[in-house]
Design a protein that fits this description.
This protein is an alpha/beta fold. The chain is 34% helix and 23% strand. The protein has 8 helices and 12 strands. Strands 1, 2, 3, 4, 5 and 6 form a 6-stranded mixed β-sheet that branches. Helix 6 packs parallel to helix 8. It is elongated. InterPro entries: Alpha/beta_knot_MTases, PUA-like_sf, RsmE, RsmE_MTase_dom, RsmE_PUA-like, tRNA_m1G_MTases_N. Its EC number is 2.1.1.193. Keywords: Cytoplasm, Methyltransferase, rRNA processing, S-adenosyl-L-methionine, Transferase. Pfam families: Methyltrans_RNA, PUA_4.
Length: 257
């Protein structure tokens, strides 16, 4: 169970002045009635924007969970950011990808309506789908005790991705690509973790296709816009696991792990 609870309006100055951090409402009720958090238990409360306060519980009821601020951390955001573009997929595989990627440290998530996506967000489903993914990211961030809550953007089209490719280092995961992700990281990030000439602060964007893969014309369009095609190995991973695997490789090369 999570030992991090979120309060997005938690203010560092207020915590410093009072020596207390608290959550109320649904978050407090969940902490006390579902997680069964008790007095004296050591937990953390964060604001999802770098602040994490840790200490023993001094108030625990359905209306409020409060802790003594023994440790106050202000974590800087990661640079470069790791961004996952996840194609919509059926059977909840896209949601599995979002959850795992959040736990592994992704900094932003972009839902993508790919040509071969069986699942579709249309009409009211667009906002509902984004809210659902944001909820998954929030819970996964609490589970993994993350200082920064990843952004979940609005639904992207392939045209939107073309524009993004021009302002980022975009990697499209494609099993037939000649270049391995490990080869790209060695050349682009450097074996000692240094950039090989490109702006080291540019986002690294991972594009994962749907169950049927990314359509040939989409691959061509993204390449023409500046994206690189990379493969993870000799096997073909599911859309639910490919992004998480790639994030693991990049995190190791970037020194996050």
């Amino acid at each position: 169970m999570s030992s991090l609870f979120l309060r997005e309006d938690l203010d560092p100055a207020a915590v410093a002045a009072s020596g207390i951090a608290s959550v109320t409402g649904a978050e407090a009720k969940h902490a006390v009635t579902v997680n069964r958090t008790r007095l004296g238990e050591r937990v953390s409360i964060g604001n999802g924007r770098g602040l994490i306060v840790t200490g023993p519980v001094v108030t625990a009821d359905a209306g409020e969970l409060a802790i003594q601020a023994e440790l106050v951390e202000n974590v800087q955001p990661a640079s470069p950011r790791l961004v996952l573009v996840q194609a919509l997929a059926k059977g909840g595989r896209d949601e599995m990808a979002v959850q795992a990627s959040t736990e592994l440290g992704v900094d932003a998530v972009i839902p993508w309506s790919a040509a071969r996506s069986v699942s579709r967000w249309e009409g009211a489903k667009v906002a509902k789908g984004q809210d659902r993914w944001a909820s998954i990211v929030r819970e996964a961030s609490k589970q993994s005790i993350r200082a920064w809550l990843p952004d979940v953007t609005a639904l992207f089209s392939t045209k939107d991705l073309e524009r993004l490719a021009a302002t980022s280092r975009m990697l499209v995961l494609e099993p037939t690509a000649e270049l391995a992700l490990t080869e790209w990281t060695a050349a682009e990030l450097g074996r000692a973790g240094h950039s090989s000439g490109h702006n080291p602060e540019l986002d690294i964007v991972l594009v994962v296709g749907p169950e049927g893969g990314i359509a040939p014309n989409e691959l061509e369009r993204l390449q023409a816009a500046g994206a690189s095609l990379v493969r993870l190995g000799s096997t073909v991973l599911r859309t639910s696991t490919a992004g998480a695997a790639a994030l693991s490789v990049l995190s190791a090369h970037l020194g996050r792990w």
